[in-house]
Structure formats: C-alpha cells, structure tokens
Fold this sequence. Notes:
Structural class: mainly beta
Number of strands: 14
CATH topology: hypothetical protein yedk fold
Mean pLDDT: 92
Largest sheet: 9 strands, mixed
Low-confidence stretches: 227-236
Amino acid sequence: xxxxxxxxxxxxxxxxxxxxxxxxxxxxxxxxxxxxxxxxxxxxxxxxxxxxxxxxxxxxxxxxxxxxxxxxxxxxxxxxxxxxxxxxxxxxxxxxxxxxxxxxxxxxxxxxxxxxxxxxxxxxxxxxxxxxxxxxxxxxxxxxxxxxxxxxxxxxxxxxxxxxxxxxxxxxxxxxxxxxxxxxxxxxxxxxxxxxxxxxxxxxxxxxxxxxxxxxxxxxxxxxxxxxxxxxxxxx
DNA sequence: CCAGACGTTGTT
DNA sequence: GTCTGG
DNA sequence: CCAGACGTTGTT
DNA sequence: GTCTGG
Length: 236
C-alpha cells in the first residue's frame, strides 16, 4: 500500500523540467517542501492530452465521475494493479486518464509486536520519480465545482520493500513514463510491476503518523521520538 | 427488471 | 467496529 | 496511511 | 456510468 509520501523538491520549474510538463494555472515558483503528504490532500500530478504534458494539482482519493458524494474518495486512495480492469471505479480512468505523481519518498508501516513503525523508501540516488496513478473529474452537483482527484496504483513489493510490507506503489522508470501516459492500455498494463532498481530504506519518526505534522524532522530515526508520540508505550 | 455497490489494508 | 478528515 | 469521532429530528 | 446480486 502507499498511504503517505513526500515531495521535498520545491522548485516548480525543476519538477516541470524533469517531467517535461508545463505548469498549469495557479502555480507559484516555489512550493513548500512536503515531507508528509496524506490522502485527501492536494498532490502534484502530471497528465497528458496525448501531445502535451501539464503539471496540475489534484485531491488524493479518487472521486469517480458518477459519484453522488465525494466521501467515496476517502477510501479510493490505492488501486490494486492486478484488478484495475475489474473495478468500475478504475476501468475508465485506466483506459483514458492515466497520470504520473512526482515523488521522492514513500512510506510503509512495518507491523511490530506492538504498534507499527514507519519506514521511508527512496531511490538509491535520491532521484525524483513517478508513481503510476489514475485520475478522474467529478462535478459537485450542488456547487457545480469541478474536482479532479487521483489514485495511486499498488503492486507486489520488490525484495527490499517486502521486508516491511506486502504491497508497494508502482514506480515507473523514466523511459516508461510516456508509455504509461499515452500508450495503449494493454501496453501500459505491462508496466505495473515491482520496481526493479536500487532503493534504500530507513526507519523514521512516528511523528509521521499525524497527518497534520509536516516537517523535516519526520525523517529522523524513531529513537529521536519523545514518549508523547507514537503508540508503542503502553499507558501505566 | 430494480437496488445497491463501486476500495484497500491490516487487525485491537 | 467503521467511518471521516487530514 | 493514521487519528479521532462515533448524534437526532423531520423533510423532498 | 456500469456491473453484480436478488
């Protein structure tokens, strides 16, 4: 699964260049570095019309175009690669609206005897990478407001991630990003595999657990945590 | 036919 | 237990 | 993902 | 919207 990630890169120009995308309306030059991006929040997305790529923001948690209420998006934060075509919520987005989500670290929680320990995963060279994702647009029937939203695709873990969890997000290799965006669905489906490249992992602070918290000290080892944080110490 | 779901994960 | 909100 | 809340009434 | 279950 992938329920949190980070995007520490803050220069829109650099992110846009990396993904050959034109920033959409409403972007400033500098973004706040994000260490703890959680479901329901706005995330950066690269989408393509077949020719041009655009960098936009969308809400994490897919709201299908047919949804009566947006609350369904709270649950559609990950889509299993194995069953994309069987799920009404994902079939159209997979065929028509694939996208990239720029990311530099994703987090998985390791089950412990008591509690869960968050672990940060990044590429060996700390490079920015693309998560495979789908998007949809929903019109709020009351306000007529258009809401674009996104879901991240998960697959089996590679060797490193399997030490922590039984799922991981699909990371696309740079050479596959264009195929994911504009290729035939059957070809795009072939890209939904565990990431084969070099990655690294490290345990991080349980301050990550609170979606309201977003600072660089999240990346410190868990031993730096104050007893107040986390749920590993039983109450007397 | 209509009604109801539409999703993933880990489990105190 | 199950849902919503971040 | 985790944290935190967890209700009722009558109405189209 | 589209599929499954009754």
